[in-house]
Amino acid sequence: MVSLFxxxxxxxNKIAENKENHEIKPTKNEDDEWELDVLDTQYEYFITxxxxxxxxxxxxxxxxxxxxxxxxxxxxxxxxxxxxxxxxTIEYNPNENYGLKFEYRLYQVFAYVQWKYGVKMNGxxxxxxR
Length: 130
Description:
The protein has a domain of 89 residues. 45% of the residues lie in helices and 8% in strands. The protein contains 4 helices and 4 strands, in the order βαββααβα. It is globular and about 35 Å long. The two termini are 22 Å apart.
């Protein structure tokens, strides 16, 4: 569920604010790197055992897919589609340099939600998971 996806290592009250506003905003950690933490325990299993490895993607590919997928995700949120899974919007700026690791983890969030919950994301194909 999206309410379980948290961008950043910010304080807990920041997370509560984002949840109340129905928006997830990426922020930088103490090392000035963009970070994506997913609080669903099966996500890390998915990354290591199911998802294609990061080396299979370029940062530019992931950025273009994430731009499309975030738009699709937010549209699903505003129309109420998959409301039992998509509980917030995602703020994503395609002009920001988030870095390969962040882009990969964000992209895999969409693949994970499709894999675990059956949420159909038009920006993903069935070949995104091994």
